[in-house]
Each structure stands twice: as structure tokens, then as C-alpha cells.
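Review box. Two proteins, two foldings.
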Amino acid sequence: MTDTTPRLALPEIQASQAQKHVTHNEALVQLDAFFDLYLKGQFINTPPGSPSDGDTYLLGGTPTGAWSGYAYKIAYLVDGSWRFYTPFNGLRAYVSTSGQFIIYESGSWN
């Protein structure tokens, strides 16, 4: 048995776990990041100067600054900090800059 759900990797609450609210809240943040994914930019390498909580970007191949080391991840800002998530097969997103939907499948966005 794993500690996360198979597709979204949401953390599961374990039997006799202390501070269950922490695990539950982390799962809610991940759902917020993935549900009706709205990207403010696609293949972006430089973090924005004044982001707002909830801003989400699909990172490019050479991210810099706070995004360094997270190539092709999804960057999601919550509580003033970036969180990074790996896309999974079937993930759909709307890209606001192009007005198009994209879907992740077999390692690439189409």
C-alpha cells in the first residue's frame, strides 16, 4: 500500500497519524492546483515579478531563479511559495496566453 493516490499523488491519511489536518490540507492544495488547470504561461523559464496566489505556469526546459531545477514541471503559487508538480497522462490545461487547451500524454503536451 502506498502513501499517495495513484494519479494525482494526493497524500493519504495514515492510521494513527498525528496532525491529520496537515495531510488533508496538502491534498486540498494539490486538488486546487490540478482542477480546471489554468496556465498563465506555457514553457516559461523566468518566474513572474509579482505573482499572486493561485498563479500557475508550465515551466520550460531551463527555468531560473525560484524555478531552477524544475524543468517541465507545473509551478503553482500558494501562500507566497511555489510548489512544483509533475504532469501525468490525461492532464488537461487551458493556456491563457494562447487561448488553447493542451493535454499531457506519454511525456509531452499536445
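Next protein.
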Amino acid sequence: LLGGDHAGARGDGLVFPAVTVRGVLAAAWAEQGRFVSAQQRGEEAVRIAESLRQPHGVVQALLYLAYGHHRRGRHAEAGD
């Protein structure tokens, strides 16, 4: 799910697994204090969801990205 054709793994939910797995990984890395990696992975999730034109995925990815900013203590960035 971290490589290849993002549209190929559709899953059975509202959000593509390629988006969800990156968001969850970003949240896990934020919990570990790996904030740069978390932000990069979260931004990647947003880009993929946008490229797939999937509104639910974009929202989910943005929430994971905001969570990483929140864990880092950057509350202003989380709201942007």
C-alpha cells in the first residue's frame, strides 16, 4: 500500500487504503516524536487523495496531518 498504483487498491471503504495507511503511519510517527517524517507522510497522503479526487480521503488525510502538528505543539499550523 505504500508503493505502486494508488488507485489499484480501492478497498471497501470511503477512503483509498493508500491514503489511510499513510495517515496512520504519520500519526504513529508523530506519537514517536518523528515529526518531520510524520509531516512528509501526511502531506503525501493529502497529495494522493487529491490526485484521486476523493473528498473523504482529503479530509481524512488533512486530519492526520493536523494531528501531527498538534502532537508537535504547532497548533497554528494544524488549523491552516
